[in-house]
Amino acid sequence: MVLPGPAQTAVVVNSYSNEFVRAIGAGDRVVGVDRASLDRLPYLDLSEDQVIAEGLDQLNYEAIAKMRPDVVILPRNAVWQEALEQLSAFDIPVVIATAWDTEVVDATLTLLGQVFGVEDGAQAVLDFRAEIAELLEERLVDVEPVPMYFETVEPYLTTLPGSGFHAMIEAAGGTNIFDDASGETPRRS
To answer: 24 with 92, same domain?
Structure first.
């Protein structure tokens, strides 16, 4: 399915994606969000009646269809395959944009700029990000990486190589103390 033009209304699932959409200048086009976005981002002026998902795997397709958004934006760790199938019956396109992964931030910002037709806004954020990355690179050139333990909002739940948070640790000049972990539960003899 192809977007006929810049999205004027969107359902955006994921708080990081909602922050990106606001940063590029399209926040006023968001008509539906997930519960985490509502809870984590009070400054976005979202309301309870905009919640169409309790989590990344619990989308209310009826509520989305009733809103008739131009597009639904989901991260790659959401149920996007299911969403594609469910929303195709309503001719609602789905875009996969993963804002929480440092390694694809530039591509995500560029994509969101195209989806909403605000390429200049996306470029402004990309330029700001590049400025920060340059400064980090400069200041970390002779700094020994610091071993780090990163804990998510869930107690004792950390990040492993291949995740967005692992990439953030490395981008900030650190090393994840679980750098060599596989994520598999060890077998007991």
So the answer is: yes
182 in a structural domain: no
Average pLDDT, the chain: 90
Question: Looking at residue 68, which CATH number applies to its domain?
Answer: 3.40.50.1980
Residue 74: per-residue pLDDT: 96
What's the domain range around 121? Answer: 10-130
Q: How many domains does the chain have?
A: 2
CA distance 103 to 165: 10
d(CA 108, CA 141): 27
Tell me if residue 178 falls in helix, strand or coil.
coil
Q: What is the mean pLDDT of residues 137-166?
A: 84
**Is a pLDDT exceeding 70 seen at residue 186?**
no
Beta bridge partners of 12: 33, 73
Q: Tell me whether residue 136 is in a domain.
A: no
pLDDT score, position 169: 85
Residues 118, 124, 130, 136: is their CA dihedral positive or negative?
A: negative
- According to DSSP, the residues that pair with 176 across neighbouring strands are 148
Same domain assignment for residues 157 and 82: no
Q: What is the structure's pLDDT at 65? A: 95
